[in-house]
Amino acid sequence: MPTKVVPTVAQSGPRKVKRHRAKKQNPEPTSPLGVLLNHEIPQICKEHNLTLEQVSNPLNKVLNDSELRKKYNRVVESVEILKYSSNGEGLALLPHPEIPGGKQIAVVPFGMPGDVVTLRVFMTKHTHVDTDLLSIDKSSDLRKQDLIRCRYFGACSGCQYQPIEYEQQLEFKRNTIVNAYKYFAPRLGVLGKLPEVGKTVASPLKYGYRTKLTPHYQLSRHEDAKTRPNFGFGSKGRPSWREVPLREYPGEVMDIEDCIIGTEIVRQGMKNERARLESQAAKGEIKHKGATVLLREDTRRNKDEVKGSTDEMGKLSILEQDDKFKTCVTDNNAIVSEYVNGLRFDFVANEFFQNNNSILPKVIDYVKSNLALDKSGDDYLVDAYCGSGLFSISCASSVRKSLGVEISAHSIAFAKKNVELNNIDNCEFIEGKAEKLFEKIDFPKDKTSVILDPPRKGCDEVFLKQLAEFYPKRIVYVSCNVHSQARDVEYFLTETEKGKDYTLESIIGFDFFPQTHHVEGVAVLSRKC
Ligand SMILES: C[S@@+](CC[C@H](N)C(=O)[O-])C[C@H]1O[C@@H](n2cnc3c(N)ncnc32)[C@H](O)[C@@H]1O
User: What share of the chain is helix, strand, coil (3-state, %, to 5)?
Assistant: First the structure.
């Protein structure tokens, strides 16, 4: 006889219902989500006489009640897009699904201010809802659909601004900077210390400018080893407002055969690597479940030096342009070369280097002229966060001496090599955190200008305090995150002892990434006495 199993008390007791609890969102304040939660949502509430409570959602209830979730995850028609977020996504107010007369704030990727749209809410957060754009019922005056050049625009997460005239894109980017200083440097506004933000400087190339792309692939659970996985870029939700070709098993990664913001040789590299993945799949040779593939343009004067991505026949893809030879490198550790204003810069393929070569001469000219270097060449330069030496080396002929500091040992090694490659002898580089330069520096402060070009998170307070103590005559702050730049500039001018002696002379954007929401900010500070 089989043994009878008597349930224990715990087993026979009432089944515990697992309750979901929403995670508290605590984004980095200068990240796009931080800006949305701390500034853009409160701003919309203020403009529409709403309190934050009036637009908040009972997230824990929604997570634990499937009927309620159906009520929240719904299709909403006739929604007007009010403005862009700093991330290039539309922001709108929706009627609240539970509270009569109440509102919800919706984030609508690909929605443009002035559009009236139908959308689907697919995710509820405490503060707002995430949505997919289903159709545009009335187009914004700014929307020019015939400008869209990519068949994947409207689902791919890479570009936001393709249907917008280029001049208008520049104006949106200027507005992002205006808002960044309003949100992160409010005291400068009150003290009357904010100059008017200048007109964003255009990129010479509007497409075909990106010297680096990083498509990825991810084997989906539905795919057998012999099917090539999608190879491309992430999708932004599941919008259906535009017919975008999707493969049978759309995953997080969209299948994209070409990216028209890439340079010609990088686009060729993308085709080659896709074909390689196809043939590896056919042979069951895909080793990794997923990977990101580096595609980086390499430019050489000497054809014999070129190495890079090969086509299906195993032939090196090579492009001859302006007496130079371009290839697309896929090896993260390969050494690549770029030329800017005739100077050569070598660096490791997966280390930082600016991604839009066409705009660099304009940026360097602007930075150089705002360093206000003495024509006699008697000035000194500090290049903080110097990477492989782009700014130091570009300014070398106009200064007596420069000192660069950089945390990446690889980049420092290449900065030193680039000095030799360009026959320069007045640039020195040290490896370490930016503040390390103050242990070493002996430049006369009245003859020294400083370039800052930190990563997205900006500078830290320790560094900014020491910079103020060092007391250089001018500071040119280049930044890929205008929010952290605004925060740092305000801190420097108002919280450091000697920062109060400086004026914020100008703020301007450079369009390193046309068709996207990104903008590079350059702020110039000069010492009054
Ligand atoms: C935006 S890149 C600028 C590089 C260079 N100015 C250029 O244009 O090529 C920022 C650089 O800061 C470096 N970095 C990050 N944190 C740092 C720190 N705490 N101190 C010094 N360098 C840092 C990164 O390695 C990166 O090379």
Answer: 30, 25, 45
User: Can you point out the beta strands (E) in 257-376?
Assistant: 290-292, 295-300, 319-321, 324-329, 335-340, 343-348
Structure tokens at 453: 């070009």
Give residue 284's pLDDT. Answer: 84
Per-residue pLDDT, averaged over 507-527, amounts to 98
Positions annotated as catalytic residues are 480
Question: Annotation-wise, does 380 bind a ligand?
Answer: no
Of 147-156, 249-258, 418-427, 434-443, the one with minimum mean pLDDT is 249-258
In this prediction, residue 287 carries a pLDDT of 76
The tokens describing 91, both together, are: 């922001």
| pLDDT beyond 60 at 469 | yes
Indicate the angle between helix axes 166-184 and 482-495, nearest 10 degrees.
40
Asked whether residue 406 is marked as a ligand-binding residue, the answer is yes
Its ipTM equals 0.99
Instruction: Establish whether residue 476 lines the binding site of ligand 1, counting it when its CB lies within 6 angstroms of any ligand atom.
Output: no
* 305 CA to centre of ligand 1 in angstroms: 28
For residue 12, pLDDT over 80 is answered with: no
E strands, 181-294, where? Answer: 212-213, 216-218, 231-232, 290-292
Residue 4 contacts by C-beta under 8 Å, 6 or more apart in sequence? none
Q: What domains appear along the chain, each with residue ranges and CATH number?
A: 32-141 (2.40.50.140), 171-205+356-527 (3.40.50.150), 212-339 (no CATH)
Helix (H) or strand (E) holding 332: none
